[in-house]
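hi! just following up on the protien thing from before. the input was this:
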Amino acid sequence: MKMITETVQRIKQLLVARKSDFLLIIVVTLSGVISFGLGRLSVSVPQKNAIILEESASFNSTTTSSLRNGQSVLADQGNYLASKNGTKYYPKGCSAGQRIKEDNRIWFITSAEAEKAGFTTTTLCKY
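and the predicted 3d structure came back as:
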């Protein structure tokens, strides 16, 4: 019991003698913990401006098959793209598909539409 009492007394003396050092350690530690917690919270909050892709009734398989005949569409109208001159279609984020010139790009909302228009899936990009 005497050893415990002596240890407690030593700790008290250390705290009194180095009061400013002890407070600095507490402030730095709490700042780090709070910063870490705020960083974690910022990642888990869902983004307010999420982009939602909806299938348009006017963009159907008839439209896509007529696109192969030389008509062009605005970029980013679908999830899959193909070249007017090619036979493969690519997911939107595929680097191989990004090499297709803007003028030659055909966009599809679904992979089924691309296949219905006569394109086959690429083996370069698997998502």
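The helical segments are 2-17, 19-44, 61-67, 111-116.
The chain has a mean pLDDT of 75.
cheers
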